[in-house]
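pls ignore typos typing on phone
nicotinamide-adenine-dinucleotide + seq
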Amino acid sequence: MNSIIITGGAGFIGSHVVRLFVNKYPEYRIINVDKLTYAGNLNNLRDIEDKPNYRFVRADICDFDTIYALMQQEQVTGVIHLAAESHVDRSIKDPFTFARTNVMGTLSMLQAAKLYWESLPEKYEGKRFYHISTDEVYGALELTHPEGLPSPFTTKASADGHETYGENFFVETTKYNPHSPYSASKASSDHFVRAFHDTYGMPTIVTNCSNNYGPYQFPEKLIPLFINNIRHKKPLPVYGKGENVRDWLYVEDHARAIDLIFHKGTVAETYNIGGFNEWKNIDIIKVVIRTVDRLLGRKEDEDMNLITFVTDRAGHDMRYAIDSRKLQRELGWEPTLQFEEGIEKTVRWYLEHQDWVDNITSGEYEKYYEDMYANR
Ligand code: NAD
Ligand code: DAU
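k done
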């Protein structure tokens, strides 16, 4: 039987992955291991929390003894590792927390899996350690076509002839060149994962994905923060000139890719995952404003005046753009959702789930879970 630990399952992407696996594979046992930091929220998983194949364990991935005991107790056959500190701005203020969780936490997960799997007669046979990483480890690309050019890639999601802002893209062999404490910590964790394959023969896989958007994203990240601010007529802090480019992927398309790669990907390989969907921040912000205004019945462009240019993020990477044709070619994955459709679904979800946002922004949910677990 497949018994899979998914770390960070109470976070944004992790909750989509947990939901997909719990619903799609009733015969698997899915163990969600999450510390419930400020970013973890069990409200993200209400619809599946009572399923018989699901278990939630509140634990810190840095706590090796607990993780190792859990691996033995649950006879774990696979790990999908998403738990991390994930927000670049926080990493600039507090790099130590990022090194602890992202580097030491990943090492603790790897070592626990190694010791447990090596203790079994079949050892690594039928096992898999899948590490979820980011395109930010590759550094920044240049903005060589500020006005945009037709993209050289065609997928269902980019069939509208979306633009590219440079001739270079991140491929799986692009040299690592992280700039922020966040991306440096993720790069370091990626190196540890590959080292465990090369040194001990652990069956590892790494994927590097571009910016995700969609329901349940913590409202400190660009899209949910701005949807909430527009709703409440609060200023929209655009870093620098808003010219930075990101490649956006709907979160459920990422979760589908993770499912496919976990089951069909080749051990020791790296796969890039991206949306073939580059946007300048200022352009995406305008799309979000128009969508919120339309769905709230406000006048067209009523909230454009909320745009407020502020001091740039330190070390702000100019452009990310992923070439994920390897994944397309080898495993047949491609994004399914056109951006216009994805952003409409996303804005609608946040507007219809104001209670979810309010719980977070009021800090209530964090206190609630602290109290709940303190009393156990
Ligand atoms: P998130 O911040 O929404 O969620 C992170 C989760 O990890 C939270 O539930 C948190 O409680 C948990 N966590 C943090 N520290 C922990 C610890 N020490 N022990 C146990 N659990 C802990 O993050 P996300 O945006 O869902 O990202 C998930 C993963 O995907 C991360 O590894 C991130 O680097 C990667 N990633 C994210 C994006 C993106 O656009 N969000 C893109 C590519 C890759
Ligand atoms: O590329 C993948 C990465 O995408 C993930 O690894 C990270 O975990 C995830 O947080 C995301 O990183 P970014 O820094 O790109 O995402 P963020 O939403 O913080 O910012 C997106 C862009 O918008 C970035 O260029 C900074 C800018 N921005 C962001 C915020 C929060 C603003 O201009 N104003 C803001 O208030």
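The pocket of DAU (ligand 2) is lined by residues 86-88, 134-136, 210-211, 221-222, 225, 237-239, 244, 246, 281, 313, 320 (CB under 6 Å). The first strand starts at residue 3 and ends at 7. more later
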